[in-house]
Q: What sequence folds into this?
């Protein structure tokens, strides 16, 4: 099952102030990947 690692985020919903902290590494990876592929990350944000 591909969602096994998602268990780490199960407790985040109890602490809404921590959602941004939990997503920080994902957003950094997403932006770095977009830059490496030469894509404009601003296009994704508007879509």
A:
């Amino acid at each position: 099952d591909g969602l096994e690692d998602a268990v780490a985020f199960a407790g985040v919903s109890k602490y809404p102030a921590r959602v941004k902290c939990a997503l920080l590494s994902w957003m950094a990876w997403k932006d770095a990947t977009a830059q490496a592929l030469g894509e404009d990350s601003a296009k994704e944000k508007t879509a």
User: Anything to note?
Assistant: The mean pLDDT is 80. Helices lie at 19-36, 41-46.
